[in-house]
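Our collaborator T.R. sent over the components below with a one-line note: 'Predict the complex.' Nothing else. No constraints on interfaces, no templates requested, no preferences about which chain binds where. So this is a plain run: every listed entity goes in together, and whatever single assembly comes back becomes the starting point for the next discussion.
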Amino acid sequence: MNTPLLEVKHLRVEFPLRRGTLLALDDISFDIAPGEILGVVGESGAGKSLTGAAIIGLLEPPGRIAGGEILLAGRRIDNLPYEEMRKIRGRQIGAIFQDPLTSLNPLYTIGRQLTETIQTHLPVGAEEAHQRAIRLLQETGIPAAEQRFDQYPHQFSGGMRQRVVIALALAAEPKLIVADEPTTALDVSIQAQIISLLKRLCKDHGAAVMLVTHDMGVIAETCDRVAVLYAGRVAEIGPVGEVIHRPSHPYTSGLMGSIPAMDEDRERLLQIDGAMPRLNAIPRGCAFNPRCPQVMARCREERPELRDAGATRAACWLVEDKAQQP
Amino acid sequence: MTTLLEVRDLAKTFDVSAPWLNRVIERQPRLFVHAVDGVSFSIERGTTLALVGESGCGKSTVARLLVGLYAPTRGEVQFDGQPTHAGRDAGELRALRRRMQMIFQDPYASLNPRWKVLDIVGEPLREHGLVPGVDALRARVSELLLSVGLDAADCEKFPHQFSGGQRQRISIARALATQPEFLVCDEPTSALDVSVQAQVLNIMKDLQKSRGLTYLFISHNLAVVRHVADRVGVMYLGRLVEVAAKAELFSQPRHPYTRMLLDAIPDIHMSGRARTPVQGEVPNPLNPPAGCAFHPRCPHANERCASERPALLAFQGIEVACHAVAEGRI
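Returned assembly:
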């Protein structure tokens, strides 16, 4: 395997509050190879978006990185000063957010927003920036790109706006795109268009993607590998087919079983009782232990680390037991 | 089986014109949105009809029309053989309304944050005068909470003390309070995480079995619809384009829009499959295309589709509104 493009090592993010500190991300480690698409899934509050925000250096205060490192192409980026980080953002890491209307400035035409981004990061003149912007709009499948260049975001539909946002994210040819729920606000027929567009463009431009979503269907269709987050920790990480079809962590199995499938009929869905713990009440040991159907005494005392479980890596004591048996 | 609910040519038009003064000064015409435009269907007792479609297709408006939150512009709803609108006196309507209840999408917005669960779930009981005193009310509410998997002690709590899934259970308990026969569920699990969604869907299925409930289930998620429904109606721009039994619809979709929707869903079990890309977007409902509303996006459209609006016709046990299907072109 090549050297990873992005390495996240033992990342901890905390929110200091008046009463104690909330540990929102606890010891998150993963990496992304160049050109790879890594999916990050989990339920609301699992820390998916926070992981993305930490990587692009846009944690909302008072949130802060309390430990660990983030390396982009071998260079540490989590401790850079604001101005340095600003140069990396956009140039080396592009970002796509959930709601395309809030990521575009309503007061500027989309053409101006695109050319501004291109000229900020790349040494090109106004004419070339204009050409590039139009080419990007065409690539993202916006019809009549020359005319739409001078229109404002409100003149675009939701799907079209998300195409503009993708064009913006790709404008400076970044090596990594952090896409945080890029299709959640869109209808299914538009979602399919945007996902295939994102996949195709990132392949063409050789960009790696960290795709944050709660939709396992999108993950299955798009990603190479997937990381399952639970209560601010990585529960399981591995190739997408393995995680979906042969999960090792009981939470992953439960999550997969609770999704209604299109090709099988079941009277009842598998359900995981209870809900994800709040950050101020994460249980001792494994965070999943109160909901786990296979909980053991050890799970309530000691926290499992990520370990090899066949093709995937899972943070579960069951996995180690399996490994010990010959 | 008997028909519990029958809807005939139901329509709702909203006036979205600019204010009078603007219309006069700027010479703007009046504008109307045909949110629901001539929808007919029926639901058998004890079964689930699901309505699916993309945002703005009018599914939620249908839900609100059925329970009487909107008055229809045209058409009729018959519940158990009795009309629910037009000229009924208030007492009769009240008695009818007790037999149908609604569950809303957002359990954060549909529960009064200042009320205790006892009051939230007990309100319909008190409103319809179904329980004699405070003790009886408390006993009945506890019973309802237990039936949706909550605890009797939760009576004294406020909504903010519950998670999203638990709140949706409170909504279900409230909807069940008057012992209705018919529940209108408007995207009941869209705001919930998948593991919690599974809990709520299981509860709804269990309740349907034990109480013989009839559901109108509205969702944009086809996988969820496939799990809960007996029959499925597909809506596009205020009209029903296809109504069929679940097995038929998912194995053999007829209408090109249904096919497109089924093609568009990413599914966890079809990793890596190539998809036919979907063309175009939903048109502006203020200015829907003439003829079949789907024709600008339809690969099978011809001149007739652009000019003549197809009616929902029975066709080999299913109902489809499509010229191409009727003519045998697809």
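Summary for T.R.: The mean pLDDT of chain B is 88.
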